[in-house]
Amino acid sequence: MAQPVYSVRFINAGPAAGTYTYTVPAGMRAVVKFVAHTNFAASVVGMSCKVAGAPFFYSELPGSTYNRFSDVRGVAYAGEVISVLIDHENTYAHVSGFLFAAGVAQLEGETEFTEELFPPLPDPAKRPSP
User: Fold this and answer.
1) pTM here?
2) What are the structural domains of the chain?
3) What is the rounded end-to-end Cα distance, in angstroms, of the chain?
4) For residues 32 and 56, what is the distance between their CA atoms, to the nearest angstrom?
5) Cα separation of 58 and 64, whole Å?
6) Among 85, 93, 65, which Cα is nearest to 9's?
7) Using one digit for the tens of pLDDT, what is the confidence trace for 25-75?
8) How many alpha carbons lie under 13 Å from residue 89 in its C-beta half-sphere?
9) Can you tell me the distance from the alpha carbon of 102 to that of 78, in angstroms, rounded to the nearest whole number?
10) Residue 130, SS3?
11) Number of other residues whose CB lies within 10 A of the CB of residue 98
12) What is the pLDDT of residues 64-93, one digit of tens each?
């Protein structure tokens, strides 16, 4: 049976400056797919997004109704936090994506991939003749 997948709005931030957070629930895995930033302030405004504590996305927009919409990919596991920091009032951020029931163990730390993890490539010299 396929595990359920949900389309989720993780963060809908603004208009107040500050940090907005979403913690991935136990037994779930989040994939951030979309980040938007809109600035209604008169000055330049920055917005940053972190996934599991690591910088993931940054946007800086000039004043008065400029928008940035970005298609992204970021994964957060159960208990990890997705956060947005808005450095000025009258600006907004939206972070959305998918929430999966976690059925596969996550790789821990910095995993180094080697050829052994992939099937061998075919030898071009041994291809059958057409």
Assistant:
1) 0.74
2) 5-103 (2.60.120.340)
3) 42
4) 10
5) 18
6) 93
7) 998 999 999 999 999 999 999 999 999 999 999 999 998 878 999 999 999
8) 1
9) 8
10) coil
11) 14
12) 878 999 999 999 999 999 999 999 999 999
